[in-house]
Amino acid sequence: MDENHFLIKRQFKTFEQAANQIANFIVEEQLPIGTKIPPERQLSEQLNISRPSVREGLRVLNLLKYLDSRQGEGTFVSTSPPFLLPDSLVEISMDEEKQRNYYGIFLMCSEKIILSSLKADIPVEMKNYPRNSHHPFWVNFINLIESHRASCKKPYLLALWDNIYVLLEDNNFFQYYQANVAIEELQMTIEEKDILKILALFENLHY
């Protein structure tokens, strides 16, 4: 399979782009746990993104416990497991805007799990994917993603997907948001490894 196909990406929302760039910066610089990261202005200059975008990206990574902001001290690479959602977020109801933001990250993770699985080129046991035409779209969608987990060798990505799924489920998000994509079409497109169409279908799942 041509690896270059996987360089084709949808246009992420600003907060997703900023969070990804900051996280990639931490990984590329090999910053150990407890390291203080550069201030907003320096990150803005180094990553070539606006300060408001940097601020939003830092907020997302703080919520995910990837970073730890200490008032008056700065922001540090967290000692907590990456992408572990705080209990306080799981236990309280969130407004619609926040749920949509987390849903965007959830879709981004789902898309990357599928692409990572296809890139690994490991046969997926579809018998582990119990699609049922009588089930709601999201039940089948979750089962579809689960069937590709074993082929995805990115534990941080899987941990992030798990936690955000629980967060959205606890807020009954999937009961009220109707997807405008047919699960049969998504499954067939994945089986055909049509990357462009996979990206297009995931884009259609966004608000």
The helix tally amounts to 10
The biggest sheet, with number of strands, parallel, antiparallel or mixed sense and barrel status, is: 2 strands, antiparallel
Oligomer: single chain
The number of distinct structural domains comes to 2
Major sheet: arrangement of strands? 1-2
Shape: globular
Number of strands: 2
Average pLDDT score: 80
Topology (elements, then pairings):
Blueprint: H1 14-28, H2 40-47, H3 51-63, E1 67-70, E2 74-77, H4 87-91, H5 96-120, H6 137-147, H7 155-170, H8 173-176, H9 183-191, H10 195-204
Antiparallel strand pairs: 1-2
Helix pairs in contact: 1-3, 2-3, 5-7, 5-10
Q: What would you note in describing this structure?
A:
By secondary structure, the chain is mainly alpha-helical. It folds into 2 domains: 12-77, Winged helix-like DNA-binding domain superfamily/Winged helix DNA-binding domain (Arc Repressor Mutant, subunit A, Orthogonal Bundle), CATH 1.10.10.10; 96-205. It has 10 helices and 2 strands. The chain has helices spanning 14-28, 40-47, 51-63, 87-91, 96-120, 137-147, 155-170, 173-176, 183-191, 195-204, and strands spanning 67-70, 74-77. Strands 1-2 form a two-stranded antiparallel sheet. Strand 1 (67-70) and strand 2 (74-77) form a beta hairpin. Helix 5 (96-120) runs antiparallel to helix 7 and helix 5 packs antiparallel against helix 10. It is globular, with a radius of gyration of 18 Å. The protein starts with 13 loop residues before the first helix and ends with a helix. Mean pLDDT is 80; it is low at 1-12, 80-84 and 86-91.
